[in-house]
Amino acid sequence: MSHRFPQVIVTFRQLNGGGSDPIAIDTRQRMGVYPSKSICGGLPMADHDIANPGTSAPLLVSRRDVIKGVIAAGAVSSASYLFRASTVWAQTSAPGAVERLVTLTVNGQQRRVDVMKQETLQTTLRYKLGLTGTKLGCDRSECGACTVLIDDVPHYSCSILTHTVRGKNIVTIEGLASADGKLHPVQQGVIDEQGFQCAFCMSGFVMAAVGYLKTNPNPTRAELAHGISGNLCRCQDYDKILNAMMRGAENLRRANRV
Amino acid sequence: MGLIEWATSPWGREVPIHIAFGLLWVSAIGGLLFLVVHAIYVGYWAKSAEAHAGEAVGASSGIAARVPERVARHSFGARLFHAVMALAMFALLFTAFLPKVGVRFAWVTYHWIAGVVLTISVIYHLFHATFWLDFWSIWPDRVDIEDAARRFRRAVGQAAPAPRKFAKYPLENKLYHLAILCAGLAVIGTGVLMMSRVRTPFLARDPYLFGFSDTTWGWMYVLHGLTGIALVALIIAHVYFALRPEKLFITNSMIFGSISREKYLEHHDPERWPVGERAPEAGAAGSKSREVPA
Amino acid sequence: MAVIRDVMPAFELFQPATIDDTMRLLGQYREDAWVMAGGLDTFDWLKDRIKRPKVVVDLSQVKELSGIREAGGGLEIGATTTLTEVVRHPIVREKYSILSTGAEAAASPQIRNQGTIGGNVSQDTRCWYYRAGWPCYRAGGNTCFADTPTAINREHAILGADRCVAVNPSDSAPALIALDAKFVVRTPKGERVVDAEDYFIGPGTDITRMNILRPGDLLTAIRLPADWAGTKFYFEKVRDRNVWDFPLMNVASAMVITDGKIERIRLALNAAAARPLRLAAVEDAVRGKEPNAATGEMAGRLAVQGARALRFNAYKIPLMRNLVKRAIGGVEKAAWA
Ligand SMILES: Cc1cc2nc3c(=O)[nH]c(=O)nc-3n(C[C@H](O)[C@H](O)[C@H](O)COP(=O)(O)OP(=O)(O)OC[C@H]3O[C@@H](n4cnc5c(N)ncnc54)[C@H](O)[C@@H]3O)c2cc1C
Ligand code: HEM
Ligand code: FES
Ligand code: FES
Fold first, then answer.
1. Can you give the pTM of this predicted structure?
2. CATH homologous superfamily of domain B4-47+75-267?
3. Is residue C310 less than 8 Å (CB to CB) from chain B?
């Protein structure tokens, strides 16, 4: 893959360049110049972005960034071939037709982004906006790793079209901590209780819990278990996870009191 | 529109699964078109050829005296078979194709039951016609071929001896029987095997029963479907001929069993279809016969 | 296991804002169009590249389709109301609790937050041969892979199979049938209102569809009549895991009991056949009887008449018998309770 490095770096810089308002597409990708690559090939497994609230383009191009660039190029260019073939593409003036260039509200920021019709929110967040705290586990609504809040309600971001959430308020794990870097009470609960092992499932659990606690701030352990039952942990220490989430709920109530 | 629908089997192979059921319309319209063209042909063009009709060489009129008032044509067994088969055939056609044109009902059960009825009736007919009836009366013979050639030469204006009258079944009738035999056997053969794919009281359902590959099964469905729609055209033509005024006496004979002496003498050659005392098994008939003389 | 591939293949996306625009789009694209509400059944098909619609019509922006209103003494639930909204609605909880229980038994919290009631009743079967994209009857092919001597068919049908042995997996459907709900369907010819049980069809009738909708049709609302509001309800779902898993079987009943006797009853059950079954014969048999264990026993035996097990689903017959028994006679306290 080394021969592709320079192009890929350019791609990634363009994807995220300009700081908070990237237009995540490159005409050369759209024309299919860069080869397609499956996103599972380079799924980054170890990037914890809890302490990196908000989002901005990385300053250094690390190996991981390169991988992400390749992934983004893949996600974009693999779809590009379809625009040429689409028979209904021309009819965008019909009622309900959809524009590709959209503005999303993510973690309180307005982000302009070029979104394919068939793109899921998870793809946009991770590969266009660089918000890799949201994980992709199954891509089939069966694990919860991709959970984000949409208008305060937990959704699987792998299973909703980005175009469907235009105009909604999207919060990912990166958006939980406050501007000064102070962790969200539920995140703090995770640290207090050392709730996770590998923590791949963690951001999904935290988002599900934060969403659930908005409807029931003072749950019993059983209620909270039910509330976050849409998330799976491969390391399987649900007891510890529940301890952490219960602690988080407590932290949250305390934070809201003061 | 393709003729056949294809799918990818679990093993990744492209296999046929059905005919494209749009072909139904091709067959139905083809059958109706034939009907219209034939009606026009008989109505206008064939009239001019009627002059030749009298020339057909017949038997000496002495024979006429021996012919009874009513000439038995189809035995009771033969007529019963025909009725059962016809019912089963219509049941099969309607159960198979109504759902394809949007009338939704649970068709498969009725379909396979009618299929079993048809199969049994055809097996009965095979034995009956082979051992009790005049087996060869329904197959085209040398005279038929010669006469067909003569008729053709005369039709295109060449000189040829006059064709003779028909034996018990006109050539067209024999050819129709041949067509229905091929289509019928194909649809029955495939249908019987396909019964292993649906739930019936006879067998545990087992699509792997015969060890056929997906491709073999696919072609079997295609053959079942193709012969099925071919039968649509054949049956349209058949019903049309049965209802034509000049053939009604034949249709009648399929219901009541006999034709009149006049019709017999007018259309048939007593040499080739002897009746009266000399006749073997009077009226016994290859009852698969279709009233399709042109 | 589903394979994670690249992004979904492209389709043209429409997000109409009104029912009329939706109908126009569906009328225009017909077979090429795919209606998407929450998309939770939809995405599996698209991601696995098994169904490849040219056009997806996303209902999420059609405000008229969403929300719960009081109407005609009962409720009218818009087709794109999410399961969570149904579960949490105070009147549903108070008067139609069987529906909130049923809807809450479905899937997982996140799925209920997005999955719609219309999508839940219109979802396709979960037969895994079919879902894997094999060319079975339901996919337009000429065989059923789930009913062969070697098939793995623990989840499949014991009743009403006609070549295809798939079952309907909806948890809200039997509750809606028990409540005598009416489904409001928009077709190009106009509006149709059908009884809940008539919305669903079996493979004999149409082996490639699970409901009466045809291309161009739209389910707009589900109406709950007042007749069965606040009656005696029973809902139970049996499944492997308490989250995500589809019902192995579920049952729903609504009863009016007068002087200790069953005066009126509606009883429905799902995941036993390709359509949710309303058990009318059982209803007739128990009317006028006391709702006790003996009646339930009799009802259970009657319910499973004609049931036929496949290779791995014989357990469903006693399961169905017992669920019907409990739906009518109630649940005995377990020895340890
Ligand atoms: C992992 C998982 C587990 C699940 N477990 C359960 C379970 O245990 N019990 C259960 O009942 N369900 C379960 N489901 C199914 C889930 O509840 C449904 O998929 C969801 O309710 C469907 O709603 P939707 O709006 O997302 O459907 P969509 O995917 O949008 O639609 C489903 C189907 O209905 C059609 N449709 C939807 N709305 C309309 C309309 N208004 N008019 C016409 N057609 C329409 C669509 O065209 C599509 O074919 C599960 C789903 C998943 C992914
Ligand atoms: C006039 C005669 C017949 C016609 C027109 C006819 C037509 C059809 C058609 C169109 C189908 C659907 C095939 C497909 O899905 O590809 C079908 C299926 C079937 N036919 Fe027939 N058929 C005839 C006779 C028979 C007979 C004689 C039998 C059995 C003895 C039979 C048994 C079946 C069975 C079992 C099926 C269902 C197979 C399946 O869906 O897997 N048919 N028939
Ligand atoms: S990745 Fe979305 S639920 Fe598993
Ligand atoms: S901690 Fe490893 S998957 Fe949950």
1. 0.85
2. Transmembrane di-heme cytochromes, Chain C (1.20.950.20)
3. no
